[in-house]
Structure formats: C-alpha cells, structure tokens
Amino acid sequence: MKLTKSWHTFSAAPHRMFFFGGVVQSILTLTWWLTDLAGRYGGLYTPISWTISPTDAHAFLMIYGFFPFFIFGFLMTTFPRWMNGEEVERRAYIPAFILLTAGSLLFYVGLIFSFILLKIALILFLAGWGMGLYALLSVYLRAKHPDKRHATITSVVMVVGWLLVAGFTSGEAHLVAIAKVGGVWLLLLPVFFAVSHRMIPFFSASVIPDYKIVRPDWVLALIPSFALVHGILELTGLQAWTWLVDLPVAASAIYLTRAWRLRESLAVPILGMLHIGFAWLGIALLLFAAQSLTLLMTGQLILAKAPLHALTIGYFTSMLLAMATRVTLGHSGRMLKADHLTWGIFIAFQAVPLLRIISELPGLELTLRSHLYLCAGVIWLACFGLWSYKFAPIYWNPRSDGGAG
User: Fold this and answer.
1) 3-class secondary-structure state, position 398
2) Residues whose CB is less than 8 angstroms from the CB of residue 296 and which lie 6 or more positions away in sequence, other chains included
3) Which has the closest alpha carbon to 327: 393, 277, 391, 375?
4) Cα(154)–Cα(138) distance, rounded to whole angstroms?
5) Are 144 and 134 in contact (CB under 8 A)?
6) What does each of the 405 residues of the chain score in pLDDT, given as a tens digit?
7) Among 19, 31, 219, 262, which residue carries the largest CB count within 10 Å?
8) Domains and CATH numbers, the chain
9) C-alpha to C-alpha distances, 368 to 4, 302, 362, 376, nearest whole angstrom
10) Is 0.85 surpassed by the pTM of this model?
C-alpha cells in the first residue's frame, strides 16, 4: 500500500519523474566518467576498455543521457502553461520515462559488458525519446495560443534531437560525429536559450523593482540560427570561420545579461542563479570567437575544449541547476527561496567550468591538467550529490501545501 501510494505521488506530474531521472543520471554519468579518467589520467589502474570509445560514451551521456531528462520534465510542465494547452497525460509521460530510464541504465551495462546490450539500450532510449516527443507535440499541435514562438523552437529541436540520437545509434562514424556536434549546437543551445529568453525576464519582473521586460524577437531568431551555422561550420572543418557567428551571439548574450539586470538579481539568490547561469553564454561564445580567430591567424587551437566546457558546464548545467531548483520548489508547494545550502551548492558548482577552462589552457603540464580534470569531476559529483540529497525526496513525497501534482 505504501509503495503504491509513493508510486502514485512520484508519477503524479512529469517533472517529478524526469527530474529524478536527471538527478540519478547526474550522479551515474560523472561516476562513470571519473572511473574512466582515474584510469586514463589518474594512473590509479590500467585504463578500462569499454565497448565504444570513452569520448563517444562521454559525449552521449552528457548531451543526451543527462540533459534531456530535465528538458522533458520542464517542457512537459511548461508547454500547457505557455500555450494554455492540455496537460500531458500520465499514459504518455510514464512510458516515456520508463523507456528513457531503462535505456540509460542499460547503456552503462552495455559499456562494460556487451556492444549488443549497448545497441539495445540506445534503441530503448530512442523509443522513450519518441514517446516523450509525441506527448509534447500533442500539446503543441492542439493548443490555439497565438504566441507559440518558444514552443515552436523547442519542439523543432527536440525532433532534431531524436534524429541525432538515431544517428548515434546507427554507429556510423560520420553520423556519430554529427550527433556529438549537433547535440550541442542544434539541440541544447536552442533549447536553453529559448527557455532563458522566455523565463528569465518573466521571473525577474516579479522580483526586481522597476523592472522593464526586455525580450526582443530578433535575438530569439538570431541565436538558434547562428548556432546552426556554427554547427555546420564545425562539422565541415571550417572552425576558423565560426567567429563570424560566434561574435554576434556573444554580443547579443552580453547585451541581454546587462538588460536583464544581472547585478540586481543577485539580491535574490534563486533569481541570481538563473542570471549567473545565463551570463556564461556570453563568456563561452567570446571564447569560441577567440579560438576561431586564433585558428584563422595562426592555425592553432590554443583553447582546446575550454569554450565547449564554458558553454556546456557553465551555461547549460548552471542554468539547469537554477531552473530545476525553481521548478522543484514551486511545484511542491514550497517557498520560492534558495536557502544557504542551495545557494552555496550553486556557487561552488561554478568552480567546475572554471577548472575545466583552466585545464585546457596552453602550457600546462600533463600531470596538472589531469589533476584539474579529476578535481572538476569530483566537485561536480559533490555538488549534484548534495543537491540530490536535498531535493530528490521531494519527487516522491506529497506537496507540502496538500495540492495536486
């Protein structure tokens, strides 16, 4: 009886299930990655031989195995509110969650023991993504709201994401390469920017005195479009020319950071978390532009993967922590307030992108570089472990205000 009640509560709303899946993946993905790094760079044991290359596995787990749980949970919650649409039905989101979770867990088993199991895992994951996508598109297509801009962008790129996962599942080298680059530029950046564009001014207006909402349409078109161009240039070996789109995106992001009033947001930590996360977008694209221009002039990739980690860890993951905290609190009947522990976790997490950027700078000894890799991973794991300890129980416990959902 108690188990049945807990399951009913856990499955009462899509964000409960999918955010919990994301929390589990945040721990498992980094645990696996640290296990691999400790052998390859830490010298603690012989490097482990996985069924696919560790860089491909790391890319899949970080891009597709971790972020989409939170993305599906968030979009299934917000689509009905953005468009005054129908709620996503349990019969749609529960099977999607189960298939995505089964595929994710089996992926680790396949990495260790069997390439066949890994393929089955990817097929299950692809099926789960498809069911989740069907649930989102059903809300989108039935809604009659006149403003579907943000929902249109996120719907389209989630379809693209399914195609990219299918490409990775095929195992064809060029499709795997497209999935690794496309996951960042064609999936994650458009989704995170559309959500930022929609939500940050909305949340800020209710907190910052005399706040003027700045939400220009042109930037909503420019950044996803230029992200697509960057991805194409990178895939075609023209990284020396990505600065042509990176600089406008960086300038636009920095403009929004100022217009959305980062400094004033810091007085309210739960809002400041969102603004700090977004500020990383401008920083990351400046690094990409510097990398591209240097490559054009010298033929050298002097920053290696520093820009990529500023984007994926600094912007995507910081924003994820901020948004997941807000949604979890708001949809559990609790006060929308980040306590000292939550704020401290978020601030401590900012060391992860900083360490990964430093570790990619030229001239570092290999030993120091390796230690910085490991240190960044340990801090990530500690931060998400503490965040999970604090917030994960909310997903299987009833709302504190006795409400539904």
Assistant:
1) coil
2) 240, 241, 243
3) 391
4) 14
5) no
6) 567 778 999 999 999 999 999 999 999 999 999 999 988 887 778 889 999 999 999 999 999 999 999 999 999 999 999 999 999 999 999 999 999 999 999 999 999 999 999 999 999 999 999 999 999 999 999 998 999 999 999 999 999 999 999 999 999 999 999 999 999 999 999 999 999 999 999 999 999 999 999 999 999 999 999 999 999 999 999 999 999 999 999 999 999 999 999 999 999 999 999 999 999 999 999 999 999 999 999 999 999 999 999 999 999 999 999 999 999 999 998 999 999 999 999 999 999 999 999 999 998 998 899 999 999 999 999 999 999 999 999 999 999 887 777
7) 19
8) 2-396 (1.20.210.10)
9) 51, 17, 12, 12
10) yes
